[in-house]
Every structure is written in structure tokens, then in C-alpha cells.
Amino acid sequence: MARSTHRPHAETSGGSLTGAPVRTFLRTADGVSIDARYEPGAGARDLAFVVAHGFTGDADRPHVRRVARALARHGAVATFSFRGHGASGGLSTVGDREVLDLAAVVAWVRELGHSRVATVGFSMGGSVVLRHAALDGGPDAVVSVSAPARWFYRGTAPMRRLHWLVTRPAGRLVGRYGLRTRIHRRRWDPVPLSPVEAVPRIAPTPLLIVHGERDGYFPLDHPRMLAEAAGDHGELWLEPEMGHAENAAPEELLHRIGHWAAGRAG
């Protein structure tokens, strides 16, 4: 996959690209409009974090804003809403073409002058940052939190509910009107590269895999599979008191992630 470019098509808000927050819309390589926010941070000026939220999240959700505030202590932060989420256009493909959304945001923060970019993804976003790094080669460090290792997992009740939401017409209506998430009705064809297949292709880019030992969606065989596939270029943090994704990530962990990325990116 070639590195994506963007074309802002809405007026930005917030002033200078280098000194103040900016909000704009980016255009992905396949023509989808992506709502994106940029905020300068208090840490290294050359470093930017790109935060990839989980399924049914968006750039304005409180848990995404909390992640952004924590990482802003270590560098600038770009957040965005995946396709089908929030103010972005298109329909969610639940991790497939979302790599194009992330690629557009990474290219944007490069254009804003950041020489080091760390992608930080949660749950669905955690799988997207892995596949993006494997296919596009854009980031200087990758952090995947609460990600699945393989597709179509239904071994827990939350994942069975998610499959109903995605695959059933009634579930997609609940997603659209109850969760502000517009889901594509077509199944994957072809099935995209799985996260565990993507991980070996990320080397030598530094990779951190983070997973809660109390994760109710994906049991510990998922992060362990990812870590085994990463080999020596990856690190695995298993967090004893943590559940799933952004809502469960404690402030202390987010700062550890920021510190790790600041030290490893580039």
C-alpha cells in the first residue's frame, strides 16, 4: 500500500499549525473524509502521537480526550475519528480500510513538521496501527493496546455481541442510532492481513504491545501471540488491574506509554 496523502477540504480552526490546536478534515486515498484534531504538546517538539480509537469511539469521546491529554505531556497529539464514526464520512469496515484513515493522519502530522511519529491504537485501533505499520511503514514507533491477534474471535460474550452488531441488520441499526457508528453491511472480501500476520513485518520499528489481564474481550493468548510474532523487536506489558482499551487504561499507564514512545521513536 502506498503512503497516503491528504487534502484538507474544510476550514481549519484554532490558528497556527505550529503553535495552536487545529481541526480539519483530511481526505483518504480512497476518498473518505476524516475528522482530525491536532494539539501541540508540552514534550519533545519533534514528536507527535497519533491516537487510533476503538470501535464506536471518536475524536470527541471523553476517553479519547483523556488519552490525548496524557500523551500531550510527551509530545504533540493528533486524534481523529475513523470512517463511519463521529463527524467522519464513510462507513466502518471494522479495521480493514481504516488503515487508510490512519495513513492520512500520519502524513498530515509529518507535513506539520514532526520528524518522529508514534501511533497508539486501542482495540480495533490497536489492530489498525499494527497493519498500518506493516503495510505502510509510516510510524517511528507503534503502541498497540488491547488488540486482537486474529480475526473472527467469538470466545467471549462481549465479542459475540460485537459480531451481532456488525453482521446483523438490527445490530447495525443499533450501531448507527445508539452508538453513533455507521457500519458497512458487506463482509470482508478479501479478508485483510491479520494482526498476528502483520507484526513480523513491522521490524525494525519499535513495537509495544499492552494488554489488561482483566480484559473481557480478548484473553491473554491474544497479546502473547502478538508478542511471540514480534520476537526481539517487540515488548509486551501485561497490566494486572486493567480491563479493555481506552476506558480501562489508567493515567499512570498512559504516561508510561508516552515515556516509552518518546524514548524509542526514531
From TrEMBL:
<keyword id="KW-0378">Hydrolase</keyword>
<comment type="similarity">
    <text>Belongs to the AB hydrolase superfamily. FUS2 hydrolase family.</text>
</comment>
<dbReference type="Pfam" id="PF12697">
    <property type="entry name" value="Abhydrolase_6"/>
</dbReference>
<dbReference type="InterPro" id="IPR000073">
    <property type="entry name" value="AB_hydrolase_1"/>
</dbReference>
<dbReference type="GO" id="GO:0016787">
    <property type="term" value="F:hydrolase activity"/>
</dbReference>
<dbReference type="InterPro" id="IPR050261">
    <property type="entry name" value="FrsA_esterase"/>
</dbReference>
<protein>
    <submittedName>
        <fullName>Alpha/beta fold hydrolase</fullName>
    </submittedName>
</protein>
<feature type="domain" description="AB hydrolase-1">
    <location>
        <begin position="49"/>
        <end position="253"/>
    </location>
</feature>
<dbReference type="InterPro" id="IPR029058">
    <property type="entry name" value="AB_hydrolase_fold"/>
</dbReference>
